[in-house]
Design goal:
Elements lengths: L9 H8 L7 H11 L7 E5 L5 H10 L4 E6 L11 E5 L11 E6 L10 H21 E12 L4 H11 E7 L10 E9 L2
Helix pairs in contact: 4-5
The structure holds S-adenosylmethionine.
Amino acid sequence: MKYQFSKTDTYTRRAKKENYPARSIYKLQEIDQKYKIVKVMDRVLDLGCAPGSWLLYLSKEIGYNGKIVGVDINDLKIEIPQNAILIKEDVMKFETTEKFNAVVSDLSAHTTGIDFSDAEETLELCWRALEIAKKVLIKGGNFVCKIFEGEGTDEFFKEIEKSFEFSKRFKPKASRKQSREMYVVAMGFGC
Ligand SMILES: C[S@@+](CC[C@H](N)C(=O)[O-])C[C@H]1O[C@@H](n2cnc3c(N)ncnc32)[C@H](O)[C@@H]1O
């Protein structure tokens, strides 16, 4: 069963007012304020970056001397910031030799609701995000990944625990209570 959401909830209205294309900004903002995922001059890989709220937020946090690479199959709905580039590609095919301080993934198969097949497909995207993160993160790097709690997520979390010094599942206030959406926050890659 899909959830029906109001298009005009508090976070949606706030995002509109603050010129972000999606309310998801407040999820990453809360995670970053709590855990300090990125800092000035960082290089960040943003997987599933469209329509661009996280990209905009990260762009401000890392400043002019940082760099963000955003990857998505869809276009951004923002003007691309000076310190960012968009690679319009399926993450399943995405390859890079660049190194990053942080990898963030808000990838999801569908964005309006979550049923069993959406959750399964999204978990596949999570595993792909982790695979990419392990290849591109510097030692001590950070990883944030959206998951939908359910079958297979414990195994995913255990795999993350093996590679990072600290890891936690976190539900931001902007994440709808009735949704199984959670974020894995993992810090200290290879430490
Ligand atoms: C919830 S949205 C991300 C919102 C984004 N973090 C923001 O703040 O604007 C999920 C995104 O994942 C992307 N996506 C889903 N499957 C993908 C894939 N296989 N490769 C690349 N992007 C994908 C979708 O196109 C969508 O833009």
